[in-house]
Amino acid sequence: MYSDFEILETIRMFQEQHLDVRTITMGISLYDCATASSKETCRRIYDKICGKAENLIRVGEDISREYGIPIINKRIAVTPISLIAASGETEDYTVYARALDRAASSVGVNFIGGFSALVHKGLTRSDHHLLSAIPEALATTDLVCSSVNLATSRTGINMDAVALMGKIILETARKTADRNAWGCCKLVVFANAPEDNPFMAGAFTGPGEPECAINVGVSGPGVIKTALEAVRGRDLGVVAETIKRAAFKITRVGQLVAQEASRRLHVPFGIIDLSLAPTPVVGDSIARILEEFGLETCGAWGTTAALAMLNDAVKKGGTMASSFVGGLSGAFIPVSEDEGMIAAVTSGCLSLEKLEAMTSVCSVGIDMVAIPGDVSASTISAIIADEMAIGTFNNKTTAVRIIPVPGKKVGDTVHYGGLLGSAPIVAVNPASSADFIGRGGRIPAPIHSMRN
Amino acid sequence: MTNKSKNTAVITVVGRDRVGIIAGVAGLLASRQINIKDISQTILDDVFTMIMLVDLAGSRFDIKELAGCLDALGSDLGVSIRIQHADIFDAMHRI
Fold it and tell me: Do B64 and A62 touch (CB under 8 A)?
């Protein structure tokens, strides 16, 4: 039925190469929870989440046990709260964050995403309330994640919101200064945010999504790295083919888990997110895959080319393995969550500028990068603006999850523990962008013909 | 997934060779009415490796319960014993 080789290959992927399903994320629409009373809305939100996700943890653990597949996280993504809270009487949206936090805690998930707003063209009154509640919401809850979409290729970049987010990120850092600005680990801004992304901190259930859906994020950098070790010195065509084959197998695991979870929870299957997501564990690093291509260190010249190829080959292998692929789908390059990235930054070979270049060919963006706490809001906004431009003008998703750590300087390292890992503080170009950010307004959408 | 594989699981035993590994695992399975459909055994890089294909159709035990029993047996025998639903191998190695 199966050869010994096939069985042992699978066992080794799980036991030695850290193959896992990174997350089963249940998307839940909250549209029917909106009322004119914030108290009633919060009650409905809590009840709906607890009802829909009642069995999520148990089913996840059952599948994990029966198939021998580690499933690391079970999570929930809800409709952006700025859409649900709009008709409520309160301007203090932290009450909604606390309702989400309580619900997440009750069902036992480790994060809930959707304290979010979509402001790529402008801010509604409700969006303003949500954005101003973000620092307090992230400081006073444990499990709530927040995301804001600031730009799309169709509408351009909302630079007023970009300017605002620089200040909000700094304020979030200040409010969680005692935990090394931990609040900023739960806050991400996007260009072209996907509506079905299962990964935190950016997961939310977009307006086009169904009542409830199961979205699954797979992982497996270690499997790709091991596969590439067997073809050392061969040409890049062989490398691409090897990655595709490994990505196919990884994705099939995700597809199996997604189908089973969907069947057992009586919730439709949404998408598989083909992302290669690293963890701080040795052997689970994207940077080490890039080095396996033949680079001395991640960040060396050639890194962008290698990453582009890796990202593309993962997608090509993965799309063959699943009919419904979505979310972010590509290679993640979060610095603090990747042992090889941390080493590359610490050795001085990987700068913020090189990370920016890498984001032009992969998902998702400047992710989990810690910077000195004294960087100005306008500089943070300018970093965001650059990243939004890369996404908007290249028709791809990009994001920024940056952590200005109060009291820390280049050379220091901050520790978050668990999957969030530890982050060396990265140097930021000291020249000012204040007048640019101070202009405000919108950057028009790019022309969609004459593409060069 | 086909019905054929619905009750099929793969058991893998990896560890240092010693007397009684196969007897131990087979005894545990027999006492729970679990049929062994296929069995293979090799020494790979000095490591004893046994792979069994088993049918759970006639047993009242499910994979989760068996995993617990096999874990305990593995500790007694000083080897690692895993049981996984066969669908995972189908998904990965068959198109």
Answer: yes
User: Which residues, 6+ apart, have CB-to-CB distance to A310 below 8 Å?
Assistant: A224, A243, A276, A286, A289, A290, A293, A331, A362
Of B12, B62, B88, which is closest to A69 when you measure between CB atoms?
B88
- The parent domain of residue B8 ranges over 3-93
- The whole-number pLDDT of residue B3 equals 41
| Probe site for chain A from B8, B38, B93 (most A CB atoms < 10 A) | B93
Residue type, A311: N
Interface probe, candidates B1, B89, B95, chain A, greatest A C-beta count within 10 A: B89
Kindly state the DSSP code that residue A32 receives in the 8-state scheme. Answer: G
Residue A170 lies in domain = 27-191
User: Does B88 contact A4 at a Cβ distance shorter than 8 Å?
Assistant: no
Q: Do B38 and A1 touch (CB under 8 A)?
A: yes
Count of the separate structural domains present in chain A: 1
- What does the angle CA A255 – CA A149 – CA A250 come to, to the nearest 5 degrees? 20
What interface predicted TM-score (ipTM) does this complex get?
A: 0.85
Q: How many residues does chain A have?
A: 452
pLDDT, tens digit, 9 for 90 and up, residues A122-151? 999 999 999 999 999 999 999 999 999 999
> How many domains, chain B?
1
Largest pairwise CA distance in chain B: 39
Q: A91: which residues sit within 8 A by CB, 6+ positions away? A: A129
Q: Which of B14, B38, B85 sits opposite A66 (nearest CB)?
A: B85
Contact B93 A6 (CB under 8 A): yes
Look at residue A199 and tell me if it is in a domain: no
Interval A398-447: pLDDT, tens: 999 999 999 999 999 999 988 889 999 999 999 999 999 999 999 999 99
DSSP letter for each residue of A232-279? TTS-HHHHHHHHHHHHHHHHHHHHHHHHHHHHHHT--EEEEE--B---
Q: What CATH number did the domain enclosing A75 receive?
A: 3.20.70.20
